[in-house]
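Give me structure tokens for this 414-residue protein.
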Amino acid sequence: MNILLGIMEGFREIWSHKFRSFLTMLGVILGVASLLTMFSLTAGVAEGFRKTLTLWGGLAVVELVDATVPEEQEGIREISPGRTYRDVLALRSSAPLVSFVSPEVRINGDVTLTNKDKVVRIGWVRGVEFPFLEVERQVIAKGRFFTDLDLEQRNRVIALGSTLVGQLFGPGQNPVGQSIKVDGHSFRVVGIFEEYGDRFKDRVCVMPLTTVQELWFGVTMVGGVDQGPDQKLSRVMIKIKDTDRFDEALEQIRNVIWQTHRGIEDFGFNTRQDWAENIENGVRGVQISGGMIVLVTLLAGGVGITNIMLASIKERTREIGIRRAVGATPEGIFLQITLEAVVLSIIAGLLGLAAGYGLVELLKKVSLQEQAPILESKAVIYSFLSAVLTGFLAGILPAWKASQLHPIEALRFE
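Here you go.
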């Protein structure tokens, strides 16, 4: 059996029954388009998360977080001072595998920023130090960042993200040197961060750590009694020097904090590596579940191909009998019918790729920019191969039935 001749025969059959062939291919077309779109959507979401992860410091960043103490330490948990500036000093002096430690105090809630008649409300304002720039990869575009003098004298200075600048002063303005009010306190704008295209990072609002501690945490009332300043830190972000020694660095950090917390294990770590693994696992989970759904569509398309090939064989029974009578072997007949099914699925696969590409381009226009679908070559290959495999499997039963036809009986068929 000449394979090229078999392929040409497949095209001839499709062309002679164009509308019927299109309806047969429709299930495979939809399956391929859905599969390609699903792969593109998940790739876009994953890439968006990876970019965000890199934007906020990358895999080298670790956050020191609170944790539930072990049951055996429950009775002595109060001897630990908790997450304080002492942890920061200890890490900076006793953890050589750590490059930067960024302490942070947050004013959570509905914080009001005011510039004359313009009012902006944000979820939080952060008190930070210079390592904030390194740990969270922030860059000052205009003006400057906080100095040691700002921290020592608790100066009321502030640095703003580009979105906040536009909302408070207008697009394209340079407000460095001007004043705004934060919950009624007057602050001078000293720095503007670069625009990143990230809706969270472009709304950053930071002040010197000591200033925030003095103005918002200078008094702690417990039962009507002033307990003095609240020295607790909202966050401690740590940047490791070498990610190849990540586990070693994490153990070093653990030992230092264990000392400052007086042996109480009331702390833990939130690592970006955990984030990355969760992202990849989530994407794989969506692809598997989405693939199972698409599989149903492809299965329906395969059943359609099987049915139409069985009908085609019945129509061509006499033709098959003649071929057998003039010397065609059962294997040749089997290959011929299988090739026709594969040709049908190849055309359906190509049409499905075209439809999927159009759908992906449409979704790019309506999706969030940072999570726009990404069309990858492997997604195109997998989607197309799924169509070819569907056609091959769908053609096996009709091909086997055709190859088993007896020549004499086939010639008698009217």
